[in-house]
Amino acid sequence: MRRFAAQARAEVAMTLRRGESVLLALGIPVLLLVFFSLVDVLPTGTKDPVDFLAPGVLALAVMSTAMVSLAIATGFERQYLVLKRLGSTPLGRPALLAAKTAAIVVVEVVQVGVLVPVALALGWHAGGADMAVAAGAVVLATVAFAGLGLLMAGALPAMTTLAAANGLYLVLLLLGGMVVPLAKLPGGLRTVARALPAAALSDALHSALGGGAVPGRAWAVLAAWAVVAPVAAALTFRWE
Amino acid sequence: MPAVEVEDLVVRYGDVCAVDGVSFSAEAGTVLGLLGPNGAGKTTTVETLEGYRRPHGGQVRVLGLDPVADRRRVAPRVGVMLQRGGVYPTMNARDALRLFASYYDAPMPADELLAQVGLEPVARTPFRRLSGGEQQRLSLALALVGRPSVAFLDEPTAGMDPAARQTLWGVVRSLRDDGVCVVLTTHYLDEAERLADRVVIIDKGRVVAAGPPAELMTAAAGDHVRFGAPPGIDAAGLGAALGGAAVIEERPGEYVASIPATPGNVAALTAWLAEHDLPLADLRAGRQTLEDVFLRLTSSGPS
């Protein structure tokens, strides 16, 4: 427990001290939220754009932390033999994984703590939001995204992971129903997008935070990714 | 029970046999030096002891335990210094030491250790901004923070300046005095000669010599006397004076006489030089340096 707590504290401190991860975790989501709420150019389909953007940007924030930040940090830790070195300390891999998970949760709580007040200040109508359902979707999505992040970090060179994670981030941002509604995508692309975890999460958050029922398809997609991605990562992960 | 035991260890990478039947052991309170040219199998051997790879044949024991199967019991009592890296690049030396200290039940105080390895002035510098030698010293400190019974140091002085090497040698000697078993690999033969109680020389995955450095150097003496004198002396004339022995000028001014290293022969040699009014620059009889032994036994020497 002492080892886990110390490691989790170190992981959080390193994340919050890395400029690029703060940019990714808070800077970009806040910027997108504020800019497109004030400049109504997106085909959000809601009367106030912030009502569409707030759940979408929360989904984006989860993806940034659980997938992109985790992938990049872990990729470099592998390249610099940190993971190898930790393997011969009494910390152990289960405690290391638990600490990384805890750090992701802490950062996500910080993100929610910043984004929700900003969204409310921009006039977000959050009445009827089902927080428990939203939290459930975030947990599943966190597992799925972390699995994808570790899949990249554990198999690719660190620089390739960096590029792949950022590229995937951009693709999933555009295809994830986060800033552009899925309904606006062409039919074929929309079908692909719906099978991806990003769209499933933003779908779930739009429903849960907008007072509606989460479609069963979104749960199924999230759950499937939450199983497949971590298993694939566990099977292919190379510690050095 | 030896602190470290390697028995007929075989490790392969695909078809390549990196370690091919290596055996040695080391007791608590001793320093074992693992020597060998690049690719000899030193790091592979040490990494098997560290639990990073499983033997394909034979077995290794650390404190009587299997480093892979008994990892949870071995890890708290073993300190590891990798050849490079192993520290979060953005973390500073003090934070890294404190973090690693938290992994162990009774760690050394981080500040005391920082002082011991001479890193106090750069305690707040991120790892990636430290010089190569400073990074090595931090890796050493991280290996020791858990008060290990066995320390594995893989090329610990690579990239260190002479002062840092002296610091490290001092740390290793005090570990030995505290009863720690230190296993270190090195390229520097003087390091092994001064530091190691026992040396194991590995080449192409096999042990080619093992024993205390002094013993290896004496055993390898052979029937040679090496001496330095001005270039171009009458080697044939000297050989005749030594009873028809071969005297060869290996490099300008460096000679090898093929005679047993007896006091009588040495006296005859110096007498001949005195007769010809030649200065004697250097004389080595009856004992080779570890470097001579190493070069003769391993593939890195002239063939």
The quaternary state of the protein chains shown equals heterodimer
Q: What structural class do you assign from the helix and strand content of chain A?
A: mainly alpha
CATH homologous superfamily grouping of the largest domain in chain B: P-loop containing nucleotide triphosphate hydrolases
Order of helices and strands of chain B: EEEHEHEHHHEHEHEEHEHEEHEH
In which order are the strands of the major sheet of chain B placed?
A: 5-6-7-3-8-9
Rg from alpha-carbon coordinates of chain B: 23 Å
Mean pLDDT of chain A: 93
- CATH domain class of the largest domain in chain B: Alpha Beta
Coarse shape of chain A: globular
Count of DSSP H/I helices of chain A: 10
Task: Briefly note the structural class of the backbone of chain B.
Answer: alpha/beta
CATH fold-type name of the largest domain in chain B: Rossmann fold
Largest chain interface and its two residue counts? A-B, 22 and 26 residues
What count of domains describes the coordinates of chain A? 1
CATH architecture label of the largest domain in chain B: 3-Layer(aba) Sandwich
Structure description:
The complex is a heterodimer of chains A (240) and B (303). Chain A has 240 residues and is mainly alpha-helical. Chain A has one domain. Helices cover 78% and strands 0% of the residues of chain A. Chain A contains 10 helices and no strands. In chain A, α2 runs antiparallel to α3 and α3 packs antiparallel against α5. The longest helix of chain A is centred in the first third of the chain and has 31 residues. Chain A is globular. With 303 residues, chain B is α/β, with parallel strands linked by helices. Chain B folds into 2 domains: 215 residues, Rossmann fold, CATH 3.40.50.300; 65 residues, 2-Layer Sandwich (Alpha-Beta Plaits), CATH 3.30.70. Helices cover 33% and strands 25% of the residues of chain B. Chain B is built from 11 helices and 13 strands. Chain B has a 6-stranded mixed beta sheet with strand order 5-6-7-3-8-9, with helices on both faces. In chain B, strands 11-12-10-13 form a 4-stranded antiparallel beta sheet. In chain B, β1 and β2 form a beta hairpin. In chain B, α3 packs across α4. The relative contact order of chain B is 0.14. Classes of the chains: A mainly alpha (240), B alpha/beta (303). At the A-B interface, α1 and α4 of A face α3 of B.
